[in-house]
Amino acid sequence: MASDLEQQQTLKNALAVSELSGIPTVDRAHVLQTALSIYPEVENWVAQFPAFLPQRIAGVCLALTATAPYAKPSVIVKASILSLIICAVDDLLDITEGFVNIRLTVEQMEAMLTLYVKLVQSGGNSTYRDYPDLIQIFPAINESQPWVQIANVLTKFCRELQKFPAAAIYYGIFAKHFKLGLEAMLTELYWSQAFKETGNYPTYEQYLLNGRKSIAAPLVQSSLLAMVGEPVDSEFSLKPPYSNLETLIDEVMLTCGSSIRLANDICSFERERQAQKPNSLLILMLTQSCSQKEAEAIVLKEMDTYLQKMEEPISLLPFSLSTWGDCTRRMTWFSCAWYQTREFHDFTKQMLAALR
Predict the structure, then answer these.
(1) Per-position b or e across 116-154, b if 16+ CB within 10 A of its CB
(2) Residues of the chain with confidence (pLDDT) below 70
């Protein structure tokens, strides 16, 4: 991207970052117009399912349009819906800030996440009722319950994702990262519980290895791979240390996920500290006896390192995946800038329109 240098210089100065700093200047008008144009379709979809919070729609529409500005609107809409599904799952796992009057036990959360993984692995060819051994842990089941709504929407999403030609090649990568992402969310839940009992957090290294998956960016990026990816030329050859194309694709997504996780931690620090959730800043403050400002400086520097590091694996992608590689780059730049301004649920359609 021609404007990478401009973006990098902007992100290094947090005081100069705005909601649009992660979007190349030449694309901003198009991104805003497209985000507003898909908003009604996503809004109509959300209105059918109370488990999905409408205050997230504007931020998600903008983020996914910034990620894939020249993709078909149907692709951006589907990626936005997947992002909202993951947000809803995260809400159900959040026992301090989740759904009002809905408190799942840890055992129910484990069963719920296992169920969702199985639905994805089936390609949408099964429903939640096909897994009686998992759903029996819920005392009462009806279609209005949030976890059931999510299961039904996830099944529908997977069926629609399978219709894309590229899904025949790349759907398995999406299913793998979906599983990794949900397992990482559960690990963070265990860590949060352990901290309340013992006062101990994981190490910074353990946290980031897990957090680059729990941020769910690789999960959404892998769904885009199944929508915009192309078959790879048989003459394409990899360079060490990548043994096959999938390991290279994984490296692209997980490197991007590391940057986004660190940016998210800066934004959500106060909220997560009060909720006693693991956060890279808090872990650094506890283990290195540094101030919040010092911890933030460390995290910003490492975020910048990952922003630069992601260019190497992206450059090694085959030409047929160059569009997807650009999407991962755009998502990372946008998210790292965005999290220096606000969280995704702290944004409205009116605020989106005002940016034009």
Answers:
(1) bbbbbbbbbebbbeebeebbeebeeeeeebbbbbbbbbb
(2) 1-16, 95-102
